Amino acid sequence: MESILKIEGLSKHFLLYDQNKLIPSCANVDLSVHAGQLTALVGPTGAGKSSVLKCVYRTYLPSGGRILYRDAGGHRIDLAQASEHHMLQLRHAEIGFVTQFLHCLPRKSALDVVAEPLITRGEHREAAQAKARELLALLNVPERLWAVPPATFSGGEKQRVNLARGLIARPRLLLLDEPTASLDPATTDRVVDLLQSIKHEGVAMLAIFHHPDLVRRLGDRVIELAPPVAVSDILETCAS
Amino acid sequence: MKKILEVRNLTKIHGRGCPQCIDSTGPEADTNICPHCGSVVAAHGVSFDLHAGEILGIMGESGSGKSTVVKTLYFDDAPSAGEAIVFDEARQWNLFSLNAAEQRWLRNHRLGMVYQNPHLGLNFNVSAGGNIAERLLMSDLSHYGEIRERARRLLERTEVLPERMDESPKKFSGGMQQRVQIAKALATQPPLLYLDEVTTGLDLSVQARILDLILEIQQELNTAMIVVTHDLGVIRLLAGRTIVMKYGRIIESGLTDQILEDPQHAYTQRLVASAL
Ligand SMILES: Nc1ncnc2c1ncn2[C@@H]1O[C@H](COP(=O)(O)OP(=O)(O)OP(=O)(O)O)[C@@H](O)[C@H]1O
Ligand SMILES: Nc1ncnc2c1ncn2[C@@H]1O[C@H](COP(=O)(O)OP(=O)(O)OP(=O)(O)O)[C@@H](O)[C@H]1O
Ligand SMILES: [Mg+2]
Ligand SMILES: [Mg+2]
Ligand SMILES: [Zn+2]
Predict the structure, then answer these.
(1) pLDDT < 70 regions, chain A
(2) Residue A215 contacts by C-beta under 8 Å, 6 or more apart in sequence?
(3) Which residue, by CA, sits nearest to atom 16 of ligand 1?
(4) Is residue B102 within a helix (H) or strand (E), and if so which, with residue range?
(5) What value of ipTM does the predicted structure carry?
(6) Is residue A195 in some structural domain?
(7) Do B261 and A60 touch (CB under 8 A)?
């Protein structure tokens, strides 16, 4: 089966001018993600897991390597080279990203926050809100909160709203960065069921999970990342 | 996505200028004042595209040329060189080769501007409703009742109480004045809107509501916008792409989250770090 995403030799480092530092973040990452399957990124803190997701989404500019994405029309695009407008269009229509944190407008109700991705894709407000209600219920967000802006929600409530928003539009490729980090076990189980069903619908996922148990339950492929060697260490090795 | 604006090599020099102005100013020279002739190179070589319904942010320190860019694109200021094309439904407008009448037509029908200083965007000698009526009159509407109804609806949409429609905006709060300005700018439903520091100086909660309003309108009307601000929070909330300016030049541009989380240029890194 042909992959939806194929990453070849991806590397990322940060050059911080004020500190005069080169910070390596990930190096030589190879992986693939297939329709209806989940590829899990694992590794110790600082191994560059989040950086890989952010490079795919272009929140970080990759330093090297290729990020080959097959779009809905069957075209192969190197996301490391795609234009800004192309990237925005893919984010809008095909690639979703759920992080740990919810950024949203102060006045929008939780229901509208969740429904919005469908509305901007042209779905009717009523239909979008109906789906949003379904998802919020499924994720155990108490109904009394639906009409309230999430700014005042607890961390776990915010995270569930964030997940619902990220999952509602069924992107072709879904990037997940610890989406269950602050959820209780019962809600986590619901999230797992939901992600399973989304997988069955054919969504391809590249995910980071806090808990090894989730990797076991959801992962079809597991990619282990090791922290990249610091530049100063490389220089020392060369010198000795 | 349809392109609505194309800007190429926009340059604005204040002063008589000399052959060395360009080479002796900019980020490398660490100044926008030409040491040979004293002219100010407010903008040079500014190029970008804007698509329909897109919000582009322009950030940079005070004096970097942000307002200069939108002012020239709104005919508030004449550029020294460069080209800008507005792609309208039926035709293209070559902004810098239009005559005065054509400029006025475009300003009144297809463009909108909201200034930081409400004095620039509003006429304080007439009522809030009158301000909007003025703009509607300059476009095509001429029926009194229709104009008044449109003005009322616009003020309602921007959350200005209709009962205050007949008062002068002079007495309004800063946030309300900005709402009237936004209503006025939107009166003709322009496909292209410039916002220059529209929330600067307002209370945080007032800012948040204005930003909400701007986003709602952008989604309703699919208005393309250029948002000028030194406030990175505003950029993050509104803009999909962002341009960073220093001493009149674009030093970096990219998707907004990339500019804020992975800035490539030392200057941008400093701007972002100092905003945390
Ligand atoms: N925007 C950034 N600027 C500078 N350095 C960064 C940036 N983002 C990540 N890094 C660095 O890159 C390395 C990898 O970070 P990353 O967040 O990708 O790791 P991670 O595997 O997701 O870790 P964790 O499990 O703790 O979330 C770290 O050394 C980090 O400090
Ligand atoms: N009429 C003028 N005559 C001379 N210099 C001018 C004139 N108008 C603007 N300038 C200069 O041009 C440069 C760019 O000004 P501009 O107003 O575009 O900056 P800005 O980035 O909008 O700054 P701010 O954030 O303070 O609003 C500044 O150095 C300014 O002093
Ligand atoms: Mg991480
Ligand atoms: Mg300015
Ligand atoms: Zn000079």
Answers:
(1) 1, 104-106, 231-240
(2) A40, A42, A209, A222
(3) A48
(4) helix B100-109
(5) 0.91
(6) no
(7) yes
